[in-house]
Amino acid sequence: MSKKWFILSVIILMYLPVSIDATVLHVAAPQLGVALGATGSELLWIIDIYSLVMAGMLLPMGALGDKIGFKRLAMLGATLFGLASLAAALAPSVAALITARAALAIGAAMILPATLKALRQTFSDERERSFALGIWVAVGTGGAAMGPLIGGLLLKHFYWGSVFLINIPIILTVLLVTAMLIPRQDYHREQTWTLSQALVLISGILLLVYAAKSGLRGSADWRITLLALLSGVGLLFWFVRHQLGSAKPMIDLRLLTSRVIAVGALMAMTAMVALIGFELLLTQELQFVVGKTPLESGMFLLPLMIASGVCGPFAGWLLSRWGLKPVAAAGMALCSLSLMGLALTDFTTQSYLAWGWMILMGFSVQASLLSSTTAILSSAPPEKAGAAGSIEGMAYELGAGLGVTIFGLMLSGSYAAAIVLPSSLPAALAERAGASIGEAVQVAGMLGQDQAEVLMAAARQAFTAAHSLVLASASVMLLVLAAVVWYIIPKRTVPLMVH
């Protein structure tokens, strides 16, 4: 094996746990919530903190790599990722696990640009670089798609922390090989690096998410919720204003003045919201309602994983044959149709029908993501390709994080409205059991057998009704977006002139 292909194998090994960790907790969520006694809101924080923090840290970590060299950045990122994995596996509480997941995201935000820069510097031949980049993309999408299955396999034999412990031997191998065999890369000490803008962006996003979660749950002080909401809006307003007025912005938001680029970013976010949100929702349905194990839940998701992984070339062929506008609108419309079909499907008795809808969803999400990339890059001027790619990358990660948040909040609200609790249940326990099905399982463990069975029957019935309502609502929203896409995207896209 030549040296450059050996370097590619190291890049893949380093990037793989980063992509897997985005979704590996989906099948572990029910078990994790019971083990740590997490509320529904806390469980959402554990899962979505990874993508939300990573979205805000990707760009400044890329600039840091330019300043110190991407080999050093990769070593720092891998070290932090390994230590955070150990901390997450041994976390004694919800707060400790959320903190560890945030640290994991910072390490991942270092690793991702480091691997991409190393790939570009290693492969000078355009054809070889394209092939290597295709492998890198496949590892990213494939790792995220296979995360639930890997989590299910581990949870069949080990405790929930094993989904983090598997990162450690991989990271140790990567650190050793990188230190000994990967050459140093170019760096530019004069490169400016500002972390404050990223921290403002992340803080604004997290404050808005906190306000949404605490406001919907209703148990938090309304004054704290309002303060978080206003603070989040204020920080994001300052961030946007600063970016628009800066000579060297972290994100070139002026690109979003192009309606096509703005819709492309919205499509990327929406497609990821639908995919990640549905995965999380379905794994809870399969385990809490249908009674499947984590491994069986991961296996049930295989058609969705395979379809989203292998349909890319076909979606690309459709784009080249029919153009951006019809493929983008059709992708959103078919995703809407698949969600409505899944909303009307009984996962206990209609497995084959569910798999058929999931295959359609996997294809339509992939077509939407490919269309969003085409829309963004085809409408940006060549000198702004890097900035356009940054907007796309952030849209992906924000969509993944917001998918957990949006679907989780809709599910919690619908579940709380639908559940009919046993009248004999004490008020304190009734409040917990009515908040989420995970908390209902925790409460059932404190009750006698007969009372526990009555409670769980009510919880399962409410969750199924909430599940259907959330998917149907998401379907309607995607259908509206499909109409917007059809109306806004022109037959031919023209690059935007940004000065």
From TrEMBL:
A GO CC term attached to the entry? plasma membrane
Residue spans crossing the bilayer: 5-28, 43-61, 73-92, 98-119, 131-151, 157-182, 194-212, 224-240, 260-278, 298-319, 326-345, 357-377, 398-421, 465-489
Tell me which SUPFAM superfamilies the record gives.
MFS general substrate transporter
Name of the featured protein: DHA2 family multidrug resistance protein-like MFS transporter
S-adenosyl-L-methionine among keywords:
no
PROSITE patterns in the record: MFS
Where is the protein found, in the record's own terms?
Cell membrane
**Major facilitator superfamily (MFS) profile domain boundaries:** 7-493
Q: Which GO terms describe its molecular function?
A: transmembrane transporter activity
- This protein's UniProt keywords: Cell membrane, Membrane, Transmembrane, Transmembrane helix, Transport
Which InterPro entries does the UniProt entry name for this protein?
A: MFS, MFS_dom, MFS_trans_sf
Q: Which NCBIfam families match?
A: PRK14995.1 (NF011571)
Could you tell me the membrane topology recorded for this protein?
Answer: Multi-pass membrane protein
